Amino acid sequence: SVFMLKKITIAVVLVTTCGCTSVSVAQPDYMYVIKPSGLYVDGNFGWGKTAVSVDGAASNKNSGLVWNVNFGYKFMSHLAAQIGVLSSPKVDAGASGEIKDNYLLILAFKGIIPFENGLSLNILAGPAWSHTKLSKSMNIDGKPYSGSYHKITGYFGASVDYNFTESFYVGLGVNYSLKAKPVPAMYSLTGNI
Known about the structure:
With 193 residues, the chain is mostly beta strands. 12% of the residues lie in helices and 61% in strands. The protein contains one helix and nine strands, in the order αβββββββββ. The protein is elongated. The relative contact order is 0.21.
């Protein structure tokens, strides 16, 4: 399964990179608004869901606020690499316990497609180290689990940003990580800055 995840991640990165490279050939000179290369920091805040259900739980409250911070480097105006942390909501399964400390440490490649007037479309993909902690023993998908878990999973994201200046933008993004039992899949809708 990890081998297949590596294949998928490599395929997504290659397709994104090739697609962005071919777009860069046709771009006119209006791209002065978007910083061509260099270091960047961005942050995201929004709503998300930790996609898991605890077997036999009376309730599964699994959505809430999420945040994300990334540090990256743009190699050119169409390609960047970044590392980041994405925190996902805890799951409150009532008397069955909680699934908390849900976060991802992400290494992602970022394909950037700039449009006129400062708009850009960003596509992200890469591996993530995921973490979750169960407050007590519980059954998830018919199997018993307890304690903390760390797994390697896949991360995917996309955003549309408006660049006010070369160094400042705002946008709207979506994030998704694959499930790696018992670490749940996590997804979110965020505002980017």
